[in-house]
Amino acid sequence: MNALACMIGSFWDSSIGKKILVALTGIALLLFLSGHLAGNLLLFMGKDAINEYALWLHELAHGAAIWVARIGVLTALIVHVHLTIQLSIRNKAIRPNYSHPGTVQASRSSRMMIWSGLTILAFVLYHISHFTLRIGNDYNGGTYQTSLPGHEDKVLNVYQMMIDGFSHPANALFYIIAMTLLCSHLSHGFASVFQTLGLRSAKNGALIKQIGRAYALLIWIGFLSIPGAILFFGYGRP
């Protein structure tokens, strides 16, 4: 048991261990983003689609699955940001003086990744508190009468909650800024995951970089389409 704890501690403290954990948590967050976006886009299919999807999520595994997912994603994000900061501090201590332009550029990119990561973490905490825990807001959405067998009772109106929430310019603007930083982070971090795991080479490096940028662009357009449609085009608003 002590030997296993020492191995885990050594792996956590090593630079390669931190890089691998950053890559693995990055993959988990990439997968979550795709699934989360797919669920959110059901907003454009109407009340029934997104409200019934939300109901299904909240009842999965008797309500435990969604909280396991939330805790897992938040833990992965905290570990990802924490280790990224540690790696940046360690690299700066090893190379205090920069003379090569490429090294200077890498240092600046690393610092941007840290600040964008911290901003995204702050946004996720804000997003959970307002849209999940519904703390300190007046857009609870009310209730929704379903037609599903066994669910004729009223449930939370997620559709209206999203419409009301993104009708507030400050909320929509913060969301847009956070998603823009997130996708900038993705466009840089996507290729780094493949490099850390030894899957990037001179032959496929350019392709992986292009795929990362395309993925980040799709995520950016998808997420921003929701507050954009509501705030600027009045989607779902009376």
Brief summary of the model shown:
The chain is an all-alpha fold and 238 residues long.
Q: Would you report the number of β strands?
A: 2
CATH architecture label name: Up-down Bundle
- Strand residue percentage: under 5%
> Radius of gyration, rounded?
21 Å
Task: Describe the protein's architecture and organization.
This protein is mainly α and 238 residues long. It has a single domain (16-93, 102-233), classed as 3 helical TM bundles of succinate and fumarate reductases, CATH 1.20.1300. 76% of the residues lie in helices and 3% in strands. It has helices at 2-13, 15-40, 47-59, 64-94, 101-132, 158-166, 169-196, 205-233, and strands spanning 143-145, 154-156. A two-stranded antiparallel sheet has the order 1-2. Helix 2 packs across helix 4, helix 2 crosses helix 7 and helix 2 packs across helix 8. The longest helix has 32 residues, at 101-132. The chain is globular. It starts with a helix and ends in a 5-residue tail after the last helix.
